[in-house]
Design a protein that fits this description.
41% strand, 7 helices, Jelly Rolls, 16% helix, seven-stranded antiparallel β-sheet, Alpha-Beta Plaits, disordered N terminus, alpha+beta
Length: 400
């Protein structure tokens, strides 16, 4: 009962401190732009602000930057080797460069900059244009760049782009798609997970027509970042409600159930970015066993502790790595008593565990019958006062 009370207190404290929807909604406010020049050794100047950052989501989403690229200005030719970006222009047209090839593309358009591909953007007109940049990192919170010192001013233009790109074209949207449940809602997936090397999963274009009933969106296995390109509306999670307008940005977290509504007299249009906590782990999810794991627990006296740990490295592991179907193992030592009490851990006299994994139970039993096991097991059990074991089927993993 005491644990339940403490757990309930933690949950209530988390809920009290959780960011409300109202606080999540960030306007793309030009009065807050910082003026930058020579971005990645590019030409001219641009206004810049960050709307959503690396600590706002649990996934490896890195940032949503926004601003205005002034006339005869841009972002210079550069590389990233640990992140993927997507340049977006919402008005005007710009010269996009990917891997040294340049084409002019009209807004509203998106151009993914895949990891390891050089890229740049240049506004060759005399008028400023609205610009967004989404990024997802390979490792949470980490980024890099390598500038090439090339403004791309006067670059030769290919009439047809040689790189992946997409446009927010309403005429290509389709209704009655289960991805976004709602009567009359229009939707198109512009880019899917096959485009990206990181956990970036999708780029969607969604329109909620005026007078429609809105949409619901359950974020199962992914998070999303939303940018409102047109219209105004509201978003709700349970009783928590937030209102947004054109050029606002906000996000939905893993496991949340969001409801969107169009509160205006014109269509509500959203650019939606989806990120998975682990694209590859999700893809490998299965109802079938992925192997077996044996958990062996030992009571080892203090005077034998070092010998037991040395035995694992010098005898047990070398004996197992030569076995058919061996996947890996871990030696675990119980927390000290003061830490165990602090975290309210179950009290136990078993102070060590060896966890071994095989692809099949059949191969584990072959290991038990092997000559190497006849050496390794006595070396472990002779150093312990007591021991026991349990077997498990492996139904999921997150090995990194």
């Amino acid at each position: 009962m005491k644990r339940l009370i403490i757990l309930a207190s933690i949950v209530l404290a988390f809920q009290a401190n959780a960011q409300s929807l109202k606080d999540r909604i960030i306007p793309n406010d030009q009065t807050k732009y910082r003026e930058l020049s020579g971005v990645h050794a590019g030409a001219g100047k641009m206004g810049f602000t960050q709307l959503i950052g690396r600590n706002d989501l649990a996934s490896n989403f890195l940032y949503l930057h926004a601003g205005q690229i002034q006339g005869k200005s841009g972002i210079g030719h550069h590389f990233h080797h640990s992140i993927e970006e997507m340049f977006v222009i919402l008005d005007g047209e710009a010269e996009f460069t990917v891997n040294g090839r340049t084409s002019k593309i009209k807004a509203p358009a998106v151009v993914p900059c895949k990891m390891g591909d050089s890229h740049a953007i240049y506004n060759s007109s005399d008028k400023g244009l609205t610009w967004l940049n989404f990024a997802v990192s390979r490792t949470k919170g980490k980024t890099d760049n390598f500038d090439l010192g090339d403004t791309r001013v006067g670059a030769t233009l290919d009439p047809i782009p040689t790189f992946v790109n997409g446009r927010l074209e309403k005429e290509k949207l389709r209704a009655d798609n289960p991805a976004y449940g709602g009567e009359g809602v229009l939707y198109r997936r512009i880019l899917g997970p096959e485009i990206f090397s990181t956990d970036w999963n999708h780029v969607d274009h969604v329109v909620i027509p005026a007078g429609s009933k809105g949409i619901t969106r359950k974020l199962e296995g992914f998070e999303e970042v939303y940018y409102v390109t047109k219209g105004n509306g509201s978003v709700a999670i349970g009783n928590d409600l937030g209102n947004f307008k054109a050029h606002d940005a906000f996000f939905g977290s893993l496991g949340e159930h969001l409801s969107f509504s169009n509160d205006g007299s014109e269509d509500l249009e959203l650019l939606v970015i989806g990120i998975m906590p682990s694209k590859h782990a999700h893809a490998n999810a299965s109802t079938q066993s992925k192997g077996i794991s044996l958990q062996m627990e030992f009571v080892v006296d203090k005077e034998n502790a070092k010998a037991f740990e040395d035995m694992y490295h010098s005898i047990y592991v070398p004996a197992m790595v030569v076995q058919q179907g061996y996947l890996g193992s871990k030696l675990l030592r119980l927390f000290p008593e003061n830490i165990s009490k602090e975290i309210q851990a179950e009290q136990t006299s078993y102070n060590y565990q060896i966890m071994i994994s095989f692809d099949t139970e059949e191969n584990r039993r072959k290991w038990v019958a092997s000559k190497q096991h006849d050496i390794a097991w006595p070396a472990a059990s002779d150093l312990a006062k007591e021991f026991k074991w349990k077997g498990y089927e492996v139904m999921g993993d997150d090995n990194r």
